[in-house]
Amino acid sequence: MPDDFVIAIASGKGGTGKTTIATNLAHYAARSGQKVQYLDCDVEEPNGHIFLKPKIDRSQQVTIDIPQVDLEKCIGCGKCGEICQYSAIICIKENVLTFEQLCHSCGGCMRVCPADAIKPKPLNIGDIELGKAGNVDFVHGKLRIGNVRTPSLIKEVKKHIKEDHLAIIDVPPGTSCPVVEAVKGADFVLLVTEPTPFGLNDLKLAVGLVRKMKLTFAVTVNRYGIGDDRIEKYCKAEEIEIVLKLPDDRRIAEAYSTGQIIVDVLSEYRKEFSELYEYIKSVKAGIDDKKRLRVRRKNNS
Amino acid sequence: MKIAITSTGRTLDSQVDPRFGRAACFIIIDTETMDFNAIENENVAAAGGAGISSAKVVIDAGAEAVLTGNCGPNAQRTLSAAGIKLHTGATGTVAEAVELFKSGKLAEASGPNVEPHFGMDK
């Protein structure tokens, strides 16, 4: 397979099997000789390591800048509080209060302060750990408890994406800012869902998000066989491709509950992940063709 | 003494709004003359920091005490920085809360009585 491809495994609903799909795909592709990188961007609750069992060999602290006010220099003009859209800094009489968890590090307060009384101060929001899980290159972010700057940490995790690898991003659930940050720039998004009313409701939200971001995507149905055919009906009507249907099999749940990789312990499911891997290769080939065509057109004109 | 009461409406008959940061209205009232005015709270639907911004509104209005149902830590810290006394647990109408406060039956809160984001989704 050609390298340099970023695939994001996302879902609207939580607990549909993003990590199951992401870790098994990473494991399967690496077994097939592919250079694979797995990046767990579900930094509030990373759990890919439970299945891939990486050997962590280095880590890095991630900090953001928050304002630190020198009250000796402060003239109490209140301009810092006026510009802040998040109420992270406010001038009350001669006092300036800062609320570090509300700060988005825009630097506005520091710029408008006429007394040069506000300086950036680092706030540690989380850690990134890197290592190897067999042949899989492993990266995950861990947000520190009590911190809320999830997208900032995800952005730092994604800086570790290696260009000569197939990068698999494990995306947080939902459709809010952390998800937007995690899927941003992905060549392909796989939306994992389940055939239940909740699954469909949240899939629709996720489809809305990836369409708005103009990302190429397809759907995977996990626990196929429960519920009904509402996901298939919806995907057909919306002309969305379903690339993998992983059946509702108690043995998969058992393997999951003991932190095992399905393609290792239930060899019959290798076929499913092989098909998924082949599908991703074909998507990649399609994108490359389009790129080549664009270059050719550009050269001809 | 000028005080602020979180209110669901613009009159003294309105119910006390149990939320501070995301209260519909602030009634600013002079406890001696009972003259009052109502301020609509623009922070009702703020994305974040509603308590802090609302505290700023109350401070700028010149209130010396706040009567409300519940108040979170960020708003409490802001009010306290301005020396404003906080009284939580107020219920009933705004007029009733003011009477209770005047008779000294609404105790001053020693700190916030709810977590941040208490007033969201209400």
Overview of this protein structure:
The complex is a heterodimer of chains A (301) and B (122). Chain A has 301 residues and is an alpha/beta fold. Chain A has 2 domains: 230 residues, Rossmann fold (3-Layer(aba) Sandwich), CATH 3.40.50; 46 residues, 2-Layer Sandwich (Alpha-Beta Plaits). Chain A is 37% helix and 28% strand. In chain A, the strands form 2 sheets. Chain A has a 9-stranded mixed beta sheet with strand order 3-6-7-2-8-1-9-10-11, sandwiched between helices. The longest helix of chain A has 31 residues. The mean pLDDT of chain A is 94. By secondary structure, chain B is α/β, with parallel strands linked by helices. Chain B has one domain: Dinitrogenase iron-molybdenum cofactor biosynthesis domain (Nucleotidyltransferase, domain 5, 2-Layer Sandwich). Chain B has a 5-stranded mixed beta sheet with strand order 3-2-1-4-5, with helices on both faces. The model of chain B has no long low-confidence stretch (mean pLDDT 92). The interface between A and B is medium-sized, with 11 and 14 residues.
Key terms:
heterodimer; A: about 300 residues; alpha/beta; Rossmann fold; Alpha-Beta Plaits; two-stranded antiparallel sheet; 11 helices; 11 strands; elongated; B: about 120 residues; Nucleotidyltransferase, domain 5; five-stranded mixed β-sheet
Question: How would you summarize what this structure contains?
Answer:
Chain A has 301 residues and is of the alpha/beta class. Chain A has 11 helices and 11 strands.
Strand content of chain A: 25-35%
Query: SS-based structural class of chain B?
Result: alpha/beta
| Spatial order of the strands forming the largest sheet of chain B | 3-2-1-4-5
Helix content of chain B: 10-25%
Q: CATH topology of chain B, anyone?
A: Nucleotidyltransferase, domain 5
User: Count the strands of chain A?
Assistant: 11
The biggest sheet of chain B amounts to: 5 strands, mixed
Poorly predicted spans of chain A: none
Helix fraction of chain A?
A: 25-40%
From the coordinates shown, what is the CATH architecture of the largest domain in chain A?
3-Layer(aba) Sandwich
Strand order of the largest sheet of chain A: 3-6-7-2-8-1-9-10-11
Distance between the termini of chain B: 31 Å
What is the C-alpha radius of gyration of chain A, as a whole number of Å? 22 Å
CATH H-tier superfamily of chain B = Dinitrogenase iron-molybdenum cofactor biosynthesis domain
CATH level-3 fold name of the largest domain in chain A: Rossmann fold
The description of the largest β-sheet of chain A is: 9 strands, mixed
**What gap, in angstroms, lies between the N and C termini of chain A?**
31 Å
State Rg of chain B: 12 Å
* Number of H- or I-type helical stretches of chain B: 3
Number of folding domains of chain B?
A: 1
